[in-house]
Amino acid sequence: MSWLNIVLYFYGLINILGGFMGFLVAKSQNSLITGLLAGIVVILLTLQTKDKPAFAYRTLGIVVLALIGFWIYRITEVAGSGSIMMPMMNLVLGIGVLGALGYSHLAATAPSKSKKPAAKS
Question: What is the pTM of this model?
């Protein structure tokens, strides 16, 4: 298992736990549902990286971007009336995961297609 998959599994788990925490602290069913869905999607897509890595990692990038957008929205929504600590931490975590996805993409080496069979002597 690659380091990126471990990061993604933890990110999915943190989303699930964050949904439960939002439900327990604020009695927010929206937090519970959103956290569960986001976490499950991230974990399922991470499992899919074994069979279809290109599709799974691209879709994970889109999901993480959507979550970053959601947390930016939440920060602007609660900025004047409540604590922005939790949305800000989730935003920073999402940016970190997106950075890890980007780094992994840029650091990956594609197999060489120009390999020629060795000449027989």
Answer: 0.85
